[in-house]
Amino acid sequence: MDSMSDSPLFDPAEAQVEAKPDSQSVLASPLTEGTILRERYQLTNIVGRGGMGSVYRAKDLRLPGRLCAIKEVTPDLNLSLELREQANQQFLQEASILAQLDHPNLPKVSDFFSDYGRDYLVMDFVPGKDLKQLLDESRAEGRKLSEETVLSWASQIIDAVSYLHRQSSPVVHRDIKPGNIKLTPDDRIKLVDFGLVKLLSPDEARTITVVQGRGTALYTPLEQYGGDSGHTDARTDIYALGATLYHLLTGSPPPDAKTRFLNPRSLKPPDQLNSQVSSHVSEAILWAMEMHPDDRPQTIEQFAQALFGHSTRPHPIQPVDLTEALRANWFIAVLALTLFLLALVITLT
Fold it and tell me: Which range of residues forms the domain containing residue 168?
């Protein structure tokens, strides 16, 4: 549980006054500073906003000194009341699964509830900078992040993603990118945003979405462009992680999947953009970013083996061209033809 030394001690007076905004205005705008949710979480400020809601930092009034990150999910007002109620039940069901996750590179989900017509997911607040900020700082200083540093981060990210994919109902994040990965002051990586995960039902072909979203274009594979109608699985996260490592190592974002579809040569190998990138790392990243899911590593562990140089990408079996085969084995072909003719002559005589 993260704590901050500058957090004020619990003030009993704060718990006695709870802001009660009008429900209709709440649906149209973010909650205000000082709002108390569930008589426990006092919002201090907004740390992020998106189309599906906001992320707040909050004080836990029951545990003095503890800070939380609260992910807000706003309802789609275009849906009928019945569908909104179904979405709420789905959120509560899936949030309960997220609350069972426990990994050192994931923020712990400690609570979830519905209030003021919205759904909320409460997680540990993670201090530190995200990798997008660190990337921007390095670029401003005219330098590139070292391969050693990036691979040390990659190892921790892979541990977290592998843990998610190994769940009985595998969890697919669907929005891995530098901005969703934080480096804490003690150099621990945290994959912070649960906002776009999918829980894959092991006994059905369908997928269950926690919060609808399409990811971020630069790190999104082509199959995810269909939104919730697109077929995404563990290989979607592999592509996104490959694209994230590409950006971190080269300092340049990869072309998005639509651009690559129209111009297959638009994606340059990482070691061409940064000569300090090892060839096996460059090849592993390109493998992870293959356009078709079947051409990528099929598991995050397989990608890790290639990334860290413990294995190489398996080469597909190429169809045999008869002309090329005869040219390469002309001696054997001539010998076979000679023996055939000799057998034919002996038979006729």
Answer: 129-307
